[in-house]
Design a protein that fits this description.
single chain; 253 residues; alpha+beta; two-stranded antiparallel ribbon; globular
Length: 253
Amino acid sequence: MSDGSQTTGSATVERIVSTMDDVGYCVVPNVLSREDASALADIVLALQANEARDDTSDLGHCRVLHLLAKHPVFVQLLAHSLVVAVNESYLGPDCVCSTFSSNCAMSGADLSYWHCDHPYWTIAPPYQVDPPLTAHTIWCLTDLTEEAGGTKFVPGSHRRPFLPEHEGDYDHEGQTPHAPAGSIIFAHGATWHSAGHNQSNDPRIGIFVRYARSFMIPQEDMQAQLVAIEDPSSLVRRLMGADQYVPQRGYPY
């Protein structure tokens, strides 16, 4: 799988991190070719079909969980050089993966509610937003546009030390960045966001990954998936929590 035209140069990483700090999110196009993005979308759709459930939400979204244990190609995304460089710069060189799943918004899928993801909804406001505890990496496998129901963000909301009001209407503040297939959207974990309304005739497919500081409890049990990965590299093991500190019996320090 090609890396497209993006590099991991320090100037590229600094620009992405600076934009995340300033706006709350940053779109990086052409990380994957459109052909590679389409091939990944086909894998997601095949997994969806194999795991067909009757619990697709009323909003028309379908997720595939525990992707890292289901196909080796997703391990490549987890440890992609640009993604690792950005998240290590933002969250520290020992950062880990908190969750890794796909989300397919079917044609006609409605807006989701405005929210922040784990761990911010577990913290009583006002909470600290600096330094960031988590960061989002969204792999765009199809075009994420306004019409297709791409993720909407409220610019600058990552500096608000509280959650959006449940079912509050922030659409007038929200922006949908144009992210063609093959792009990555990086975002501060506290940035307010919502899935858009898919008004196109095709599904909108993305891989949604959250990285976290090493002392955070991941939202997903990443270590349990390691056994399904053949010969994981030391980087993959670290990202999946194999090196996280575990309290030792009898040693309180």
